[in-house]
Amino acid sequence: MAPGNALTPRLMAPRPPISADVRRFSFELPALARSAARARHLVEERLLLWDVDATVSDAVTLVVSELVTNAVVHTASHRVVCELRDCGERLRVTVQDEGCPAAAPRLRRGSPEEGGRGLLLVDAVSSAWGAHDARHGAGRVVWAELAHGSDLGGTC
Q: Which residues span the domain enclosing 134?
């Protein structure tokens, strides 16, 4: 029998314990235009509680705003989930949508110059970023890491 079937469970390596210095905060919002502003507010409050430097906080808030906006505009999701992880030297932002491509953009832009720069901004302020399919069910996860503190190495 092949490993991993119902009769022979696949062995998995144990996960390393989560370090005590990892702080997490996550929230779910409806996939509506106003959710980007709500996400910014929630992130600003949390980073203030975590005593994150104002410059880093502004960059993280910008990244969250852009990623939530992209999830709302470019998918037909009903909700988006955002998570912040503070791993000491890095802050990791993830935004997950439900992965349904939108038939048409869900927000109206005033002019062509107003849109299309979101991921360029994320790239400019992040030390790393990327995207992958969600592990469970439909959806896409877009993540970004921003360095803060004295050490610029390591990842969350």
A: 23-147
